[in-house]
Specification:
Two copies of one chain form a homodimer. By secondary structure, chain A is α/β, with parallel strands linked by helices. Chain A has a single domain, classed as Ribokinase (UDP-N-acetylmuramoyl-L-alanine:D-glutamate ligase). Chain A is 39% helix and 21% strand. The longest helix of chain A has 16 residues. The two termini of chain A are 34 Å apart. At the A-B interface, strand 2, strand 4 and helix 4 of A face strand 2, strand 4 and helix 4 of B. Strand 4 of chain A pairs antiparallel with strand 4 of chain B.
Chain lengths: 331, 331
């Protein structure tokens, strides 16, 4: 097995975030799931956009955000995801490539347009997401570059993409390609709603040993294991995945591997502006440590540093120099 | 003459800003005019976008930014400007309407696309702008709503739009409509390059008494008057316009009216992040005071407060609650 030239290749939704501050009353008025992610159709997206204040557009997408963090830390990364042949598609493609990430999935002609996520940020910094998947849900299995997947140390998959049919098929093929080449598969559960719909798939994959690194937050852990108690949830899962990483918002994060538990507190943040991308950037920091052979406790700290950066400003792509932040914090 | 229902109606470029931080070397390498605004064609826009890092998109356009500030302060405003029937056009239209500004110019079908401005922000917070005018330069005189112009207390015009032919004709018609209805005409000189090309037009309009309020920065004042010394420039112009307002970056601003000079220092800013929109928001604060009958010195302070807010973050649209900022500062 030759040394992989890519560290992490990811498959994820190719989304542009459209974000604006809002008050709590607006979340209530439109019956949004506060703090959650909801898929919306064209009509609902239009209705919510009408209600949204002046916004800003910043490339997003969970796995794409993770790669943006990894690349900013110096990682060699590649992304697979579907944009449409339109202006927001150009924006997404520009931003990911400008971040130093290889991105070769051809844009899809015609309707629907590139995916967008309408993100309402309440005064406490919490984000409530409404995703119009558009072109993103039509990622065809043919878009997979199996040679590229075989050539990456880690294949990173976003649970969100398990929901639409074509990308799900693509991801199953990608897992087979990665495992066939002897690579690791990392998976993030993304959101409790995905587990509600596809938990059986995930539990089966985990039981079959197809997932090497599993990322979840505490809510997703509970949804997957059916255990409300955090430590019960960890206990139920930790023997089934070689490396389990669970984030707990302001309570920090935990990793379980080799029968051991590792914990890290959250990094201090002067002001939580917008929590969008906190989990994505935690995964970026953690994976950066992992592919560079750092000890698990340091991987957790790297995750916490990156998450703290992302919640201190609008948008889920890093603004500060992550390399420098890490150097300052870890020396 | 009935009481106008709109306070300020503006004609300006309808632009989405595409902004990213960059180092000084990039400005040099591409021979950009540091701190200035340069019009670019499709090819140059493509070349510069390729060189740009991951960016964010925020609605812009000089006069549109001014209205966004005015509306945030509680003003009743309307905007006239040309977008294309595309995604960036939707973004622009959404943001301006979501800010509470009336905007009725129909989107233009087909090519060229909506205008965008590629803004490179150096570590000192200075912005270097490269504008692809796209659809914006095709604002037809027919797009003018002369009844709406006659119904606004102030018609505010952006010098940038004097450059392309169709909007120039539209602006001449708008000035005639406003003057015919007995309204005031405010004009911002926008950039020294516009004065290089159209200074004779501007000087003739000023001499003919067509401009009631003239906004300029110190560089534009020098270009228009041919006087390098700031006070010589003021002296040369102040008898020709009823109200002359000149900004001087970190040296504050000056207004000349009725033979008197009024000065205000710049408001303190913790960190200058991005100077994009400083002049636009100064004009917003000043005009807000003016249409509400505040004394000139207070209009200047209002301008300085709004300018300080806008340079403390990325983008030329206000993020903080301007009303609250003003209330805190002026009580």
């Amino acid at each position: 097995m030759s040394k992989p030239s890519t560290q992490v290749i990811a498959i994820g939704n190719a989304i542009v975030d459209v974000m604006a501050p809002c008050d709590d009353a607006l979340i209530e008025r439109f019956g949004m799931t506060r703090g959650g992610m909801t898929l919306v159709d064209t009509e609902r997206a239009h209705e919510l956009y009408q209600a949204m204040g002046p916004a800003r557009e910043i490339s997003g997408g969970s796995a794409a955000n993770t790669l943006a963090g990894l690349a900013a830390l110096g990682g060699r990364c590649a992304f697979i995801g579907q944009v449409a042949d339109d202006q927001l598609g150009e924006v997404f493609a520009h931003d990911i490539r400008a971040g130093g990430i290889s991105f070769a999935t051809p844009a899809r002609a015609g309707d629907p347009p590139t995916a967008r996520c309408l993100i309402f940020v309440t005064p406490d910094g919490q984000r409530t997401m409404n995703t119009f998947l558009g072109a993103s849900q039509y990622l065809p299995p043919a878009a997979l570059d199996e040679a590229a997947i075989g050539d990456a140390e880690v294949l990173y998959l976003e649970g969100y993409l398990w929901d639409p049919e074509e990308p799900r098929a693509a991801m199953r093929r990608a897992i087979a390609a990665a495992r066939g080449a002897g690579r690791k598969v990392a998976f993030t559960l993304s959101d409790a709603f995905v587990i509600d719909r596809h938990g059986d798939d995930f539990r089966a994959m985990i039981a079959a040993g197809e997932i090497d690194i599993l990322f979840a937050n505490h809510v997703e852990l509970a949804a997957l294991t059916g255990r409300d108690d955090f430590h019960d949830g960890i206990a139920a899962l930790q023997d089934q995945v070689p490396l389990l990483v669970v984030t707990r918002s302001e309570q920090g994060a935990v990793a379980a591997t080799g029968g051991q538990l590792y914990e890290v507190p959250a990094e201090p943040v002067a002001r939580v502006v917008d929590t969008t991308g906190a989990g994505d950037l935690f995964a970026a920091g953690f994976l950066h440590g992992h592919v560079n052979g750092r000890p698990v406790s340091e991987c957790l700290t790297l995750g916490a540093i990156c998450a703290a950066e992302i919640i201190s400003h609008y948008g889920a792509r890093p603004e500060a120099d992550l390399k420098e932040l890490v150097a300052q914090r870890l020396g």
